[in-house]
Amino acid sequence: MVLKSQAELVVPSSAVATLPFDIPNTSVVAIHLVPGGHWLLVGCRDGSVWYYDLDLSCSTNANSSPQVGRPHLLLESPLATQQASKNLAGVFIAIDHTSELVNPSENSFKVLKYFNLAVAVTIMPNDLDSAAHSFQVWRVDVLTNIPDQGESTELKAQQRLSSFKDACSIINDISIHDFHFAYCLSYPPGTTVIVDWRSVNDKAVADDPNRWHLDSHTSSVSRVIKLLVAGS
Q: d(Cα 23, Cα 76) in Å, to the nearest integer?
């Protein structure tokens, strides 16, 4: 799979498929492939998240369906309408790979029954000293024709599990594992912030006493990571 530009995605296969990013009134800034290869998540400059059905687009019967190449809205932008319309947002997307699988003993591919989706939407001010970051965690269900048997038909953002804010430097990347949400900062270099997304729900991260700041140059990083993996 190759991202040629903000306007086009090419999916290599026996019959090459090209998906135009024809999302109205905005442009694509981030893409993320859902495990299993069926769904492609797309983050846009207005802060919204959409998805594409790659299986349908690569099908030999694709031309017979009006759904081919069509973007589907998964999450509306958390920004105010006026702010979203400026199309200046940065978007980061991450999936919790510990989410439940569909028939894991029978399926050789990692196909998710549902998954927790982490999204960060950021707006950079003119002075570049700090940014306003909006973080959300959603449970996304993979809907099928017949539960545990039918083919996947669509994604649905079923429930917002957490929403919080932080004002810090530019974000380079995000990650989610179980109840832990991590985001890497550009400054100070090598710094990662980790929070329990349950405890910061509807809060500012600065108000949470249980957040971790990891500096890659300190000896405490490996110890803290071991504590997080152990669930302490």
A: 13
